[in-house]
Amino acid sequence: MKRTVVGIAFAVVPIILGAAVAFGRPLSLYGDAAPSVAAADGLRDDAARLRVGAERTEEYLPLVEGRRVAVLAHAASTVGDEHLVDMLCRKGVNVTGIFSPEHGFRGDADAGEKVGDSVDAATGIPIRSLYDGRTLRPSDEVMRSFDVLLVDMQDVGLRFYTYYIAMLRMIDACAEFGRDVVILDRPNPNGMYVDGPVLDMRYKSGVGALPIPVVHGMTLGEIARMAVGEGWAKSADITVVPVENYRRSTRYVLPVAPSPNLPTQHSVYLYPSLCLFEGTAVSLGRGTDFPFEVYGHPDMKGCDFSFTPQPRAGAKNPPLCGCECFGTDLRGKADEEIIAEGFNLEYVIDAYRRLDMGEKFFTPFFEKLVGVDYVRRMIIDGHTAAEIRGKWQPDVESFMQRRRPYLLYE
Fold first, then answer.
1. CB atoms closer than 10 angstroms to residue 66
2. 78 sits in which H/E element
3. d(CA 118, CA 291)
4. I need a surface site. Which of 154, 168, 256, 375 has the fewest CB within 10 A?
5. CA–CA separation, 274 and 347 (whole Å)
């Protein structure tokens, strides 16, 4: 059985990385260019042969046999057409509790919405929320109710996507109580490049917990290895069940939406760049059928495209609700072009210049998302996206070297 035990020993896994690209481009696993359409088709063929960690039951069911099991999971934690928890119960695993991250166990809560404890209607298992606004870690009583924690969540590879933070909090708790952690790894759909500022820990928050770039290129299993190895998390006994037949360049299409406002693969690719609008006066389409694929504002005149955010499931009170917003529609932009551009500040710079609002364009949340103080300053001072990328590129190159011992995939 292929096991990766973190906190006891590290296996140095060979990796294949493209050379660092020229100034003004993201650090890509493809070298100087994103894959052509033909190459992308080949990568999709690879994806058809993948077995995510949760599907590799022969690797982890022996680790939980006869033990009390808690599960950290969400709506995308599926094994084929079945939810992981349902599959475990069907196989007779003693699941004593479920921990839920942001958006809740069934994935229907808004971004940032506080979610309380509940009971899973399908199994009767208690659900303990890690996103209720109070719980820093489960109580001692809850921690004593299980022997091993199974982690299975579909991440999208961004520093401000909070599932990895929930995982790290549980790793710390398990380290304190001597509980084993088994991570059922899943592909990172944005794992083909690394880009964006490395978090200045002065801006550590609920949307940024580690000194890593905005687009870090790692899976949750790899993040766990690095967090423990670098001393960013406590040293728990961690086993990672890797994804079978996965390469970092694999174009993995998510079978289930990982959160309510990332409903399409296209939105997942645009999410790294458009999420910065959460820290501005601009709407990125929450409350529409196409969140994270558009951006606009009522005062952004002279645009052929407009949209009006309205309350809906997953966006109960969206920014600029009920206001007609004029702006840019990115739904027709090719995936390959988005990936080649990497973490792209051009959208934010475009909206900043067209609105001409000065500092009022930004909110304090902008720094928490981008992770540093110089991006706002450089935008206001009139720098281009390529010039600002040049500021963070050396830090990204250093990070890529630092993460090498913790990688599991080529």
1. 8
2. strand 78-79
3. 28
4. 256
5. 7
DSSP reduced 3-state for 205: strand
DSSP 158: B
Cα 152 to Cα 72: distance, rounded to the nearest angstrom: 6
At residue 396, φ and ψ (nearest 5 deg) are -65, -40
Q: What is the location of CATH 3.40.50.12170 in the chain?
A: 5-16+49-253
Give the predicted TM-score (pTM) of the model: 0.88
Percent of the chain with pLDDT over 70: 84
CATH topology of domain 5-16+49-253: Rossmann fold (3.40.50)
Indicate whether 79 pLDDT > 80. yes
Q: In this prediction, what percent of the chain has a pLDDT beyond 90?
A: 78
The secondary structure element, H or E, covering residue 176 is helix 163-177
What pLDDT is attached to residue 24? 43
The pLDDT of residue 12: 31
Q: What is the DSSP letter of 391?
A: H
Those residues with Cβ within 8 angstroms of residue 170's Cβ, 6 or more apart along the chain or in another chain = 72, 99, 130, 137, 138, 149, 151, 181
Tell me the DSSP string of 252-273.
PPPSS-SSTT--SHHHHHHHHH
Measured CA to CA, the distance from residue 73 to residue 149 in angstroms comes to 10
